[in-house]
Amino acid sequence: MVEVVAFGGLLLLGGRVSGLLGHRRTFRIGLTTATSLATAGVGAADAGTAAATFNAGQQVGGALGTALFNTVATGVTATRLRTHEGGRDVVTAGAVHGFGVALLVATGIMLGATVVAAVLIDPRPTGDAPLSY
Predict the structure, then answer these.
(1) What's the rounded Cα separation, in Å, for the pair 43 and 75?
(2) Nearest residue to 81 via CA among 71, 91, 73
């Protein structure tokens, strides 16, 4: 439940910023910030490779995420519709439940990825390349 509240808060914040600055500008600011953070500390010789790797990761992640979470939501919705009888309200409730479960699965994957990143990524510089922020 905590993740739903946190996600809702981020949506409200994003919606407010988007309302103030415009949707395109907000998207561009977010994309620029994410790319800058992903390529921070990379040497000039490897900056293009790092940016391309980040972009490819975004594209593959978006495609796999859409396929995975759509499958989860559809499966849960279909199960809910088979086990509950009724009219239009049951269909709506089933769809909402399916999307809710898909968001919980996404939250679990993100938390797992956060733990893996925290364990595997060593924030200390290796001394090979100077960090430039």
Answers:
(1) 45
(2) 91
Tokens read off for 51: 């940016």
Question: Cα dihedral sign for 73, 27, 34, 52?
Answer: positive
Q: Which strand (E) or helix (H) includes residue 92?
A: helix 88-120
Provide Rg for the chain, Cα atoms: 20
- Name the residue among 64, 77, 54 with its Cα closest to residue 109: 64
Q: Would you state the structure tokens that stand for residue 35, as one six-digit string?
A: 């790319």
Please tell me the pTM assigned to this model. 0.60
Q: Nearest to residue 66, comparing CAs of 55, 74, 76, 54?
A: 74
Instruction: Give 20 or 5, the one with higher predicted confidence.
Output: 20
Judged by phi (left if over 0) then psi (alpha if -120 to 50, else beta), residue 8 lies in alpha
